[in-house]
Design brief:
- Helices cover about 5% and strands about 65% of the residues.
- By secondary structure, the protein is mostly beta strands.
- It has one domain: Avidin-like (Lipocalin), CATH 2.40.128.
- The longest helix has 8 residues, at about 5-10.
Length: about 130
């Protein structure tokens, strides 16, 4: 796919299954919903109604690949930021535009800016049909 084709095909909502491949979350899974918006924004949320905070970031497409970064803020019971998660990855979109594959990582920081954890993960997604 060209940059324009992947950029157009990526737009929409996706069911994503993420598997941690390295770091403290090794072997754990998350089911997410990612929405790629046409203006280059990406929004992520927990697809199972769990305790993962919503995330927002930006995505770009180049040649036959795309990349993104996301930030999520977890709060304590009083609503103050407790941890900040910076996620980033690079991926490909299948030729039919119905599945995507991503490899990336995340860094988790405490509210004081201290790095708490680094994770690596792979994700596979399928388009959500309207």
């Amino acid at each position: 796919m060209t940059t324009a084709e992947i950029g157009t095909a990526l737009v929409g909502a996706w069911h994503v299954h993420l598997t941690f491949t390295d770091g403290p979350q090794l072997g754990k899974h998350e089911r997410l919903r990612w929405t790629f918006l046409p203006d280059g924004l990406i929004v992520g949320k927990d697809a199972e109604g769990g305790q993962l905070p919503p995330a927002i970031g930006e995505w770009t497409a180049e040649d036959d690949r795309f990349s993104y970064w996301l930030n999520a803020v977890r709060t304590d019971l009083a609503g103050r930021p407790a941890t900040i998660v910076h996620g980033h990855a690079e991926g490909t979109l299948a030729a039919d535009g119905q599945t995507l594959t991503v490899t990336g990582g995340s860094e988790v920081y405490g509210s004081n800016g201290q790095l708490l954890a680094t994770n690596r993960a792979d994700a596979h997604g399928t388009r959500i049909r309207a």
